[in-house]
Prior knowledge:
The structure holds two protein chains of two kinds.
Chain A: H1 2-8, H2 10-43, H3 50-89, H4 96-134, H5 137-144, H6 148-187, H7 191-199, H8 204-230, H9 235-268
Chain B: H1 2-33, E1 40-47, E2 58-61, E3 64-76, E4 79-87, E5 98-104, E6 111-117, E7 130-133, H2 139-168, H3 172-179, H4 181-215, H5 221-227, H6 229-263, H7 269-275, H8 277-305, H9 308-328
Parallel strand pairs in B: 1-7, 2-6, 5-7
Antiparallel strand pairs in B: 1-4, 2-3, 3-4, 5-6
Helix pairs in contact in B: 7-8
Amino acid sequence: MDSVNNTTSPAPSRISKTRSKVADFFLMLYRIYAFILRFFKEVFLPPYEFREIVRQCYEVGVRSFTLISLTGFIVGVIFTKQSRPSLTNFGAESWLPSLVSIAIMKALAPLVTALIAAGKVGSSIGAELGSMRVTEQIDAMEVSGTKPFKFLVCTRVIATTITIPLLATYTAFIALLGGYLNVSQNEGTSYATFMEQAFEPLTFVDFWASLSKAIVFGFTIGIVGCYQGYNSTKGTEGVGKAANGAVVTAMFLVFIEEVLIVQIAGWFR
Amino acid sequence: MDAAENKKSITVGVFVLLGVAVFVIGVLTLGGQQKTFVKSIHISSIFNDVSGLKKGNNVWFSGVKVGTIKNIHFTGPSQVDVVMSIDASTQQYIHRNAGARISSDGLIGNKIIVIDGGSPQAPIVQDGDVLQSEKILSTDDVMKTLQQNNQNLLAITTDFKQLSKQILAGKGTVGTLLADSTMGNQLKQTMRNLQAATQNAARMSSQLNSFSNKMNTKGGFADNLLTDTVTFNRIRASVGRLKEAADNASILTDNLNKASNKLNTTDNALGVLLNDPKAAVKVQSTLNYLQQSSVKLNDDLEAVQHNFLLRGFFKKKEKAKQDSIKKAM
C-alpha cells in the first residue's frame, strides 16, 4: 500500500504544480488588467504631476535621442544597402527611395524605436521602481500620503506614450536621411527627387498607422516597465527580474501589437 | 536646482517641438504628394474592369500626375465607377471628350488611370463630369495574342522545315539549283552574260547620253532641225520637190514599163523587129538587097561624075575646097 502511494505520489504533485502555474498566469493577467485599469482611473484625476512628467520625458526621450538617432541612421543606411542588390537584379534601383520609405515609415521606425526604448527605458523603469519597491520607498510614500502610483507610474507611462512617438518620428526622418545619403552616393539622386519618390507610395493611413503603433508601443513599454518594477518582490533579485521581465515582456508585446495594428490598418486601406 | 529643472524642461520642450515639427512636415509633404491640401474637382469614369485599381492610386494626364483615385464603387452589373480627384489647376487642360484608361506605373508598378486625348473644341471638364472610359488590352488578352502568334510561328517553322528538307533532297527549283552543279555553272554563265549585258547597256547608255548631249549642242544640225524654222521650211520644200521628182520618176517608169511591154509584143514595128524571127530574116534580106543596091548606085553615081554634063560642077567644087584649105594655112 505504501509502495503504491510512493509510486503515485509524484503525479498529483505535477498536476498541482501545473494547476498552480495556470492559476498564477491568470492571476498575473488579472493583476495586469487591474494595473492598467488603475492607471486609466488615476491619470485623469488631479493632481497632475507635470513637473515629474517633464522630467520623465527628459529621461525617456531626450536621453534616448542620441542612441535612437544613431540606430535609425544605421538602419536606414543598412536597409538601403542590403535592398540594392535585389532591385539591381530587376534593373529597378530607382525604386530604392520608395522601398526604403515604405519599410521605414510603415514598420522599421516605430519598431526599432520601440525595441531600443524597451531595452533602455523599459529596463530602467523596471529596475528603478523595483528597487524603490524592495527598499520600501513606495510603501513609505503611501504612508506619507503621497500617491506613489500617480507620481511614479502615471508620469512614466505618460512620458513614454508621448516621447516614443516623437522618437519614432525622429528615427523615421534620420533613417530616411541615412537612406538618402546611401542612394545619393551610389545613384546620385537629388534630395528633392529622393523625398518625392519616398513619399510617393505612402498614404495617410500609413502615417496614422505608424503613429498609432508608436503610441501603443510607448504605452506598452511604460506600463510593462512600471508593472514589473511596481510589483517586484524578493529583494535585490527581484529588481533584476523586474528589469529583465520589463524588457522581455515589452519586446514580446511590441511584436504582437505590431501584427495586430498592421492587420487593423489593412482594414482602412 | 530650479535652474537645472528649467533646463530640462526647455530641452524637453525643444525635443517635443522639433518632433512635432518633423511630423507636421511629413504630413504636409505627404499631403502635397496626395494633393490633399490643394483645391480639386471630382470627375469619374465607368469601367468594366479596373484591374486591381485602388483608392489613392495616381491619375496621370499627358504623363503628369494630376490627381488621385478618390473612390471606387459598383454602379451596375460589371460596371465600376471610379471617382478621381483632379488638381483644379490642371482642369483647364482637360476637355470633356478626353478618355480615361487604366494603365500601370512601369511594367510591374501600381495601377494608375491615364487621361488622354480630348480636343480643344470640346468644353473644359467640370466637377462631376464623367469621362469616357477606354478599354485596354489586359494581360490575358496580350497572352492570348501571344499564344496565337506562337501558333502562327509554329506553322511557319513547320513549313520552313518541310521546305528545307525538300531543298536538301534536291527537289524543286531551289533544291535543283543547290544540288545540280551543271545548273549552277549555267547560272554562273548566265550571270556573267547578264553582267556583260549590263556593262554594254551601261556603255550604250553613256553613248546615248553623249549623243543626246551633242544633239542638244547649240547651233548643231539637230538643234537647227528642231529650233530653226527657216531650215525646217527649206527641208520641207526639198522634200516636196523630191516627192514631185519621185512622182515623175514613177510616171516615167510606168511609161518605160508600158513601152517595154509593147516591145515584147508583135503588134508594132519595133516588137516585130525584136520578137518576130521571120521579120528578122526579111529585114536581113532587105538589108542585103539594099547593100547590093547601094554598091550599084555608087557605081552609077561615079559614072555620073564623069558625065560631061556634070563634070564642070564637080571640078568647081574641088577647087573651092582647095582654096579654103590654102586660106586656113
